[in-house]
Structure formats: C-alpha cells, structure tokens
Specification:
By secondary structure, this protein is mainly alpha-helical. It contains one helix and no strands. The termini are far apart. The relative contact order is 0.03.
C-alpha cells in the first residue's frame, strides 16, 4: 500500500510541475504576443511619421524651389536694370568726353 501512496505523491508532484510549466508557458506566449503587437503598433506609428515628414519635406522643397526661382527672376531683373544704368552712364560719359573734345 505504501507503494501506491508513494506513486500517488510522485504523480501529484509531476502533475503540479506540469501545470506550473504550462502556466509559465502560457504567460510567456502572452508576453510574446503583446510584444509583437507593441512592435507592430510602433512600426505603424513610425511609418506614419515617415510619411508625414516626407510630405512636409516635399512641400518645403517645392516652396524653396519656388522662392529660388523667384529670386533668380528678381536678380535677372536687377542685372538687366543695372546693365541699362551702366550703359546709360557710359553713354553720358562718352557724350561728355565728345563735348570736352569739341570745346
């Protein structure tokens, strides 16, 4: 009879250990599932931020290109005006030189 009691005790001990191992396994699987979900959420959030930043950078690039083009146009206008003023000044100086030479 003692053998039966000893075997029962071993069975109970092994059953308890198996239950604890199963519970630990289930907890680990739950943690892994939560970590996977957190990672996926993080990736989604990061993807959205990257898309937003790319859009903002594209908008900034467009605005910058427009402003650079506007500055080029303004500088071309200024260059043209300056050249006209230089030509007019050169013509006046030439006329004055001619007048001095005749006098």
């Amino acid at each position: 009879m003692e053998e039966g009691t000893g075997q029962d005790a071993v069975m109970k001990f092994e059953t308890k250990q198996l239950q604890e191992l199963q519970q630990s396994r289930n907890e680990l699987l739950s943690r892994v599932a939560n970590l996977k979900k957190d990672l996926q959420d993080w990736r989604t959030k990061l993807d959205n931020q990257v898309k937003t930043y790319r859009t903002e950078l594209g908008d900034l690039r467009t605005t910058l290109n427009q402003e650079v083009e506007q500055l080029r146009t303004e500088f071309q206008g200024l260059r043209s005006t300056l050249n006209q003023q230089l030509e007019a000044t050169a013509n006046l100086a030439s006329v004055e030189d001619d007048d001095e030479g005749k006098a």
